[in-house]
Amino acid sequence: MIRSLNKVISNNFIIKKNLIIPYNNYKFSNKNNIYRNFCTNNNEELFKKTSIPPNIVFRLNLMHKKSKELRNILDNNMGLGQSEIKKISKELQETSEPLGYFTELEEKLNELKELQTMLKEETDEEGKQMIKSDINQLKEDVIEPLEKQLLFSLLPNNKDDAGDAILEIRAGTGGSEAQLFTQDIYEMYRSYSQQKGWKFEPLEVSTTEVGGFRDVTVSVSGKGVFGFLKYESGVHRVQRVPETETQGRIHTSTVTVAILPEPKDVDVQIHDRDLKIDIYRSSGNGGQSVNTTDSAVRITHLPTGITVAMQDERSQHQNRSKAMKILRARIYELERSRLQAERVNERNSQIGSALRSERVRTYNYPQDRITDHRVGINANLNSCMNSDGLDSFIEEILVQFHTKELEELLS
User: 0.70 exceeded by the pTM?
Assistant: First the structure.
């Protein structure tokens, strides 16, 4: 959809009053950020207190203006050929969703403006409270969700965002405390997935003697899983007093989180000749089959050197199936990251690097605060760890990243 957003200025013309006019005739003012004689919509003030940046509002106004002109051309059937009709119809279809949100948001912002005017003029205290309640409800239930929907609709389609994900959590620095926090993070995402109606399937779990996990790998399935979780990747830092601490000192530990898009079979082709498969006897604490059958599987992808070992299941077939699922996701992520790095370098963007940046988040237990350092957002820690507040926290992070990405694409 972003391509349509740029067409109005990337083409060498604009359409006005059924005439094709070179856009050079319309001077662009950096100071006022408008095309004079073209963009006459005065809604910039309405959007100032929203999360929609001014340059995106400006582009949306242009898109809305052009859309009206294109519809007028189609309605008047101005001797267009089938190819021109098809091209215009496609562009109108691509822009219909963001323009629908944009128009509805503008209407609701006008309603908000009217309510704020009524509040200033109201003299009765009870009447003021009723208006304030209506204002808060309009903001929280209508305007804020519309802002998010508008921003999301403007982003280019990413097939990975709609699909499933592989979640990998590993204990970092901090010894046993990091391992215990790895389990806490695992439970946080498990509760969140349950709240969202996603399937949460552990694939590989490495436990410790003191409790907690060394590392855990999970398949998370459902609508839009990767799109929601992709910015969770990075180093998560915890500051708290461990249960074993007798002096009451605050310890700092880290956990690494990786979110990989789970590819379909058609996305990644793995040839048998590129695999080295080792079968061996399971070891460690476990069920009846441990140390009794050759059910454990280690698969190495020779071209990339990626190795996955699996022994959690009783049968060799089940272990191989799980190992291949993880291997396929890691190979896909390797190639995806390579292509993303190339794109980032080409446009000198900071967006892609943020996905793997150090210390993306801090969980401060003494202050009951969780902070995302990339976008500077704070939330209640206890609420997020219980998944109640995690959804709104993640959504706000998504809004910030998507806004940044849009500004990069439009710059």
Answer: no
